[in-house]
Design goal:
The relative contact order is 0.16. The chain is α+β, with helices and mostly antiparallel strands and 150 residues long. It has a six-stranded mixed β-sheet, with helices on both faces. The protein is globular and about 45 Å long. Bound molecules: coenzyme A.
Length: 150
């Protein structure tokens, strides 16, 4: 299985279509073809995926000269609340720091319970875009930008 296959198998399981946050296979493929976009894929033990293992969670991220952006994070429902999400974020921040980033960013829909995880990982809300997301039933939700100083 390719990284793209692993990411899409987690994507299909992790994201509720109602929120319209999941990316299509084409979107992921296009983004990974860009030179500064990369994926971190972990197994259920929160270790980097080894050949032959099953992916439990992933982060898609984009690198810029002094900052990085966490584009998307997903963990399979059956392995949630065992620390895979936190380990992915800590690994991402660690790699960004080593690459010379001073800050990392992410953006989240206003009512996502993942906020608790982001706050406890050291992210702080720094901005809000009104009515940025539209759910399947047409409800509009703000986007909140979080930043973590490294
Ligand atoms: C957000 C997500 C990646 C977290 O993954 P996870 O592996 O369950 O995270 P962890 O086990 O490391 O959780 C760490 C902490 O955050 C809390 N937390 C995580 N997700 C939560 C949720 N959905 N609701 C409430 N609390 C949550 C946990 O209670 C835990 O707190 P604790 O350490 O104080 O006990 C996962 O819930 C997910 O894939 N959600 C769907 C996709 C999504 O919304 N992604 C984010 C937007 S792009």
């Amino acid at each position: 299985m390719s990284d793209l296959d692993h990411i899409m198998s987690v994507m299909d399981a992790a994201f509720d279509p109602h929120w319209r946050e999941a990316w299509t296979r084409q979107q992921v493929e296009n983004s990974l073809a860009m030179p500064h976009t990369y994926a971190i894929i972990f197994d259920k033990h929160a270790r980097l995926l080894a050949p032959g293992s099953e992916a439990a969670g992933f982060i898609l991220a984009r690198r810029a000269p002094s900052e990085e952006e966490l584009l998307l994070i997903g963990v399979r429902p059956e392995v949630r609340n065992s620390g895979v999400g936190r380990a992915l974020i800590e690994y991402f921040s660690d790699v960004a720091r080593k690459e010379g980033a001073e800050r990392v960013f992410l953006e989240m829909r206003a009512n996502n319970p993942a906020e608790k995880l982001y706050l406890s990982c050291g992210f702080e809300p720094i901005g809000r875009r009104a009515n940025y997301y539209r759910t399947l039933d047409g409800t509009l939700l703000d986007a909140i930008t979080f930043a973590q100083r490294l």
